[in-house]
Design goal:
- There is one protein chain.
- The protein has 267 residues and is of the alpha+beta class.
- The radius of gyration is 55 Å and the shape is elongated.
- The protein is built from eight helices and six strands, in the order ββααααβαβαβαβα.
- It is 29% helix and 11% strand.
Length: 267
């Protein structure tokens, strides 16, 4: 078996010579460090199997796959008549696009108060006497009621001026002016409506739901229930104001109607 011998070099010190120099003699010393027995590699030789007389059916070979060559998409050429000019939104260049600046708007104080009030009403437990103003008349019934109230809308300033002027002209001509019946129209004004409810002369009271401060009409539904006067809460003080030719109206009252409309009022 082959062996491996490792050689190692040693340095042996010799005595100094007459010149005072140290002579170093290097010698090669054979020193067997390890002898490794290297066994031969065993090769497993399998015996070739004897050819059998049976014929083995060959497996069907799949046909080669057809390679699909993708045609490159032809890029649509830009129209030379229209030149591309990309926008530059830098300072002093193109106008900036529209953005939602709601967060950066300094809203008026009354809008802030409206929003804060809505948040408070949602988060706090609202008393029943205040919460009743959220239970308003539905849209269809409110439209029918406003149409009914407009029949009994009071006369405007122009109509009153024309009526008085006509009376003066008739007096100048010597005509006798007969005192007509008192016109039937909707009554407005919080003090006036309150006195009508207390005297039980009001047949229907219409209250706006968005009166501010709400304390102005907070007691009115309770008074109507005590006196047995029917009342209804409707959305929009501006809609009530339109009936009596004003900007807004807190409440309206109907005292008398025509015979033909009495059935509609009872409904």
């Amino acid at each position: 078996s082959p062996s491996r011998v490792i050689f190692q070099q040693k340095k042996i010190k010799a005595p100094r010579n007459h010149l005072g120099l140290v002579v170093v003699v290097s010698t090669l010393v054979l020193k067997p460090l390890a002898v490794l027995n290297m066994p031969k590699k065993q090769v497993n030789k399998k015996k070739a199997a004897a050819p059998s007389s049976k014929k083995v059916a060959s497996k069907p070979v799949a046909p080669p796959k057809k390679t699909i060559v993708k045609k490159p998409k032809l890029r649509k050429r830009d129209n030379p008549l229209f030149e591309k000019k990309p926008r530059n939104y830098g300072i002093g260049n193109d106008i900036q696009p529209k953005r939602d600046l709601t967060r950066f708007v300094k809203w008026p104080k009354y809008i802030k108060l409206q929003r804060q009030k809505r948040i408070l009403l949602k988060r706090l437990k609202v008393p029943g006497i205040i919460n009743q103003f959220t239970r308003t008349l539905d849209r269809h019934s409110a439209g029918a009621l406003l149409a009914f109230l407009e029949k009994y809308a009071p006369e405007t300033r122009q109509q009153k001026k024309a009526r008085l002027l006509g009376q003066v002209k008739d007096e100048a001509k010597g005509k006798q002016i007969e005192a007509g019946k008192k016109p039937k129209f909707v009554k407005c004004g919080l003090k006036h409506v309150t006195s009508l409810v207390e005297d039980k002369r009001a047949k229907l009271v219409v209250i706006a739901h968005d009166v501010d401060p709400i304390e102005l009409v907070l007691w009115l539904p309770t008074l109507c229930r005590k006196k047995g006067v029917p009342y209804v809460i409707i959305k929009g003080k501006a809609r009530l104001g339109k009936v009596v030719h004003k900007k807004t109206a807190t409440c309206l009252a109907i005292t008398d109607v025509e015979i033909k409309d009495a059935k509609d009022l009872a409904i």
